[in-house]
User: Which sequence fits this backbone?
């Protein structure tokens, strides 16, 4: 029987994978996808708690996270394209103009 | 107490299958060498999480997960990946070899079949202890969304407008 604990563990694993990906990869696009993975892990946690506590507010919050994720991707990818015009590279170690 | 044995498939097995798919696809997402295979891994994570939402009495969110995440956000990411690739790289990624294609087709069909099982499970669900009648119903969801969370809804609409204007501004030729 899948209990709340199962969902918490699964969601933590997915969040951890996203965090590891964000810290170890250098391709800016894969960093974006790692952030999406972390947001999805949080969504799963919210839906699981909403189900096991019989409170639908959690599901509504997931919808707000969808909107924030959409906004984040729209602005982030626009910044990335702007950076790419200057550097011609998606490797984040090449974005070192502001580095001290 | 919990949903078991709906549609001939144990719902516990349903959880384990999709949890395994999500973790393996998540690993693939962060470990893939190129961005495009990584995006395909992320797509698999999104679909398997949508299937788990069906299991968790959230059919509307499962639809939104597929429509917004897999349909809008991931398409935007793939569009940018293709935009930033050189033409030679683009051609190489499209030319997947035959065994990959067959594997992908089988995986896709299995996912569709399992999601169909999940949808059936939601439609003739047995009441869980502590869950009221019609939990996860889109009408209750809409009532909560446009009544209790109306202010949040308006704030989010402003956020999306700001993001849209920011995206257009940042993509101008001369910044």
Assistant:
């Amino acid at each position: 029987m899948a209990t709340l604990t199962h969902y918490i563990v699964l969601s933590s694993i997915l969040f951890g994978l996203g965090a590891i990906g964000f810290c170890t990869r250098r391709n800016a696009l894969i960093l974006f996808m790692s952030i999406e993975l972390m947001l999805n892990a949080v969504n799963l946690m919210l839906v699981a708690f909403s189900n096991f506590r019989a409170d639908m507010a959690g599901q509504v919050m997931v919808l707000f996270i969808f909107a924030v994720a959409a906004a984040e991707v729209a602005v982030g990818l626009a910044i990335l394209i702007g950076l790419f015009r200057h550097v011609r590279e998606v490797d984040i170690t090449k974005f070192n103009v502001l580095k001290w | 107490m919990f949903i078991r044995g709906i549609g001939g498939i144990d719902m516990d097995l349903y959880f384990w299958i999709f949890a395994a798919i999500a973790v393996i696809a998540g690993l693939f997402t962060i470990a893939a060498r190129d961005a495009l295979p990584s995006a395909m891994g992320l797509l698999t994570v999104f679909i398997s999480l949508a299937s788990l939402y069906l299991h968790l009495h959230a059919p509307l969110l499962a639809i939104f997960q597929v429509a917004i995440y897999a349909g809008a956000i991931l398409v935007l990411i793939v569009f940018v990946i293709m935009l930033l690739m050189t033409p030679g790289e683009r051609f190489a990624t499209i030319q997947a070899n035959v065994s990959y294609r067959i594997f992908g087709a089988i995986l896709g069909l299995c996912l569709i079949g399992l999601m169909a099982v999940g949808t059936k499970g939601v439609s003739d669900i047995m009441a869980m202890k502590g869950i009221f009648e019609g939990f996860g119903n889109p009408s209750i969801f809409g009532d909560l969304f446009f009544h209790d969370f109306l202010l949040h809804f308006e704030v989010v609409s402003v956020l999306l407008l700001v993001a849209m204007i920011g995206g257009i501004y940042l993509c101008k030729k001369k910044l």
Observations:
- The longest helix of chain B spans residues 59-84.
